[in-house]
Amino acid sequence: MSKPFSIAIHGGAGTILREKMTQELQDEFLHQLEKSLRAGHKVLAQGGSAVDAVVSAVTVMEDSPLFNAGKGAVMTSKEMVEMDASIMDGQDHNVGAIAGVQHIKNPIHLARQVMQDSEHVFLIGEGAEAFAFDNGYAFTEQDYFFTERRYEQLLRMKQAQGFALSESEYPDDDKHGTVGAVALDQQGNLAAATSTGGVTNKQYGRVGDSPIIGAGTYAENGNVAVSCTGMGEFFIRKMVAGDVAARMRYLQEDIATACDTIIQGELKRIGGEGGLVAMDAQGQAHFSMNSSGMYRGAIDTVGNLTVKIYSDE
C-alpha cells in the first residue's frame, strides 16, 4: 500500500481582474495549471521523488507563454530576459539556485543541476550559464523568449516610468509573476521549487526572492515546503518562506495559521503584496494571498484536483 503523496502549484499572485479575463484565456490558464499538476503528480504516483515532481510541474509552466517564467518571462529595461530559479530538497536541506540567466530554456532544470552536480548552491549570470553549457545544456537564443505581450508590457511600463501597472490590456499585467510547486512523495520527502522572469523593466541585474532560499523557497521534511510569489523585495525583507517553516517548527502552528499570519499580517503591513503555496508533512496544501488572485492548484492525497484563479474562490 502506497503512502500519501500530493502536489500543489502556483502561477503567480497579484491583481488579476475578472472584467479583463476572457473565457478563452481563463480556460487556457486553467488548462495549463492542470497540465502542470498532472505532470508532477504522475512522477509521485510512480514512486518518484518530490524533487523530480516539482521540477516536472514547474517545467510545464516555464514552457507556457502565459506565466512569467521561461518562455513567458518578462523583459528587462534592455529588452532581454533575466531569469531566476531555486529548488530545495527537504530530505537533506540540499539546495540549488540560479539568477540572471538569459539563455537557458528551463531555469528550474539548471537549479536542480546546481543542487545535484556542483559543490555550490547559488550561481549567477555568466557563471551559471558556463556551468550549464559545461553540463550539456543547449544555448537558447533570446528570440525563444520573445512574446508580443511581454514587449508591449515593457513599452507601457517604460512610458509609465516604473515597474507596476495601474492600467493594463491584460487581466494580470499587474501580477507579480512567478511559478512554483511543492510536493510530498511516497517516501515522506518534501520539496519546493520556484522560477521567475522577475519584474518588467527591471534594471541593474535586479534579483528578487525566488532564487533565495528562506525568502522565496524552503523545504524541510517533517515540517513544510513553501514557494512564494509577490514583490520580491518585501518577501526578502520578511524571509517569508523560512518564517513559515520557523513558525511551524518552533511555535507548533498549523500550516494555515503560519502562512496567513505572515501573508495577511506582517508582510501586508510593510506593503508587500503576493502569496504562497505551502504543503505540510501530511500532504495538506495551503494557499495564502493578500492580492485579488493567484493562479493555483493542487492534487490532494486522495487524488482530488482543483485549479483556481481568484482570491474569493
TrEMBL record:
InterPro entries to which the protein is assigned, alphabetical: Ntn_hydrolases_N, Peptidase_T2
Cite the entry's keywords alphabetically. Answer: Autocatalytic cleavage, Hydrolase, Protease
Residues the record lists as binding substrate: R206, V207, G208, D209, T229, G230, M231, G232
- What GO biological process term is on the record, naming one? proteolysis
Question: Which residues carry out catalysis?
Answer: T178
Q: MF terms per GO, please? A: hydrolase activity, acting on carbon-nitrogen (but not peptide) bonds, in linear amides; peptidase activity
The organism's superkingdom is given as Bacteria
What is the protein's given name? Isoaspartyl peptidase
* UniProt lineage: Bacteria, Pseudomonadati, Pseudomonadota, Gammaproteobacteria, Vibrionales
